[in-house]
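Title: [Solved] HAD family hydrolase 3D structure

Original question kept below for reference.
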Amino acid sequence: MLYGARMNKQISLSNTEYQLILDTKTIEINKFLSLLKLKNIEEFNFTPFYKLFNIDTAEWTIVDCEINGDLIKIEPKQLILDDFDTFIFDLGGTILNDNKGIEPKNLEAINFLASKGKKIGIATAGAIFMLHWYFDKLPCNLPFLCVNGGMIHNCKTHKLISDFVIDHDDAAKLMNKCDELNLGYYVFWEGGIVGMNVENSHDFKDKNYKKILKPEHWVLNPDKSFFKDKKICKIFATFDPHQENEIVKLDEYVKCFPHLFGMQTQRNFYDVGKITSKALALQSIASEYNIDFKRTVSFGDSNSDSLTFESTALSFAPKNSMHLAMQNATFVSNKTSNEDWLAEIIYQFK
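Solution (posted by the thread starter after getting help):
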C-alpha cells in the first residue's frame, strides 16, 4: 500500500472480522468501541484515516470511519492525489535537513504538488523573520503559521494577521521566572525576536542569529523597557539537558496562568503562549481558505506537529522525529529528514 513507511492509528481485527467489515463496509458501534477499548464514541477522533489490520494474515487497508446511525460506516481509501487538496508542512526537521537545506528531490516533490493546483502551507516553530531564505523556494499559497501557531502571516505581504498576544504583565512574570531559573529565552514580538540570556545555550551557539535574521529583526539582551510597547506573541525558553529540572519548574509555573499554555515542542525548547497550536491556527484559517480536513495531508517531526496530525486525514513523519510526532502520525517514514523522504511519500499518491 505504501512502501518505505509504517502505519499507526491501527484497528486490529481477526480474519473473520476483517473480511466481514470490508464486505459490509460497516461495524456496530458497540463492537467498534470494544475493539478500540473505548467507553463512548466521543473518545474517537473521526478526522484521520485509520488502518484496518488483519492480525491473522497481516493484510491491511486504509479506511475512513463515519457514524451512520447505530453503525460505523467504513470506507476503504487509496492514496489518490485528486482526493486531497491541502498539504501542510513543518519546516525544520521536515522540509529542512540538519544543515537547514532542502533535499532537491523533496523540493521537486513539493513543487509537483503546487503544479497540480494543491494548497501548500507552512506550519513551523520558527518566526516569519527566519523564513526569508525560503520565500522564493517554496510554492506556498496559504498563510504562514509561525511560532507554533502563535503568529499567522499573509504569505504574500508577510503581514501579521493573527492576534494571539500575551498580556504584558503575564509576559513580564514569565520572563522574571525564566531569569530566576537561569533559563535563556527568546521573545517573539510582531517586529522580530529578542534573545534574553541565551548566550550560553547550545541553541545560540549552534545558530548565528545575526546571519539568520536581518538586523532590524534581532535584538540581544535589551533592557526590559524595550518590551513596553511591543506585542509579545510567544516566549520560548531554551534549555540544555542539565536544565530539565528547571523546565519542569517552569511548566508548573505556566499552569498558574489560565489563558496561557506551555509545551516542550522541540528537544531544546519550551514554548509558552496563548492557548493555540499549529492545529488551531490551521483551523482558524480553514473557512477563509476552504480547507477540508478530510482532504488535508500534514507532514512534521516535532511534538507540536502531533496536534496537527490529529486534525488531518493523513499525516507523515520522518523516522528521526520526536516521540509524539511518531506516535500520532498516520505513517512514519523509514527515512530521515536528511533524505528524500517527502519525495518518496508524495510520489506514491496516484
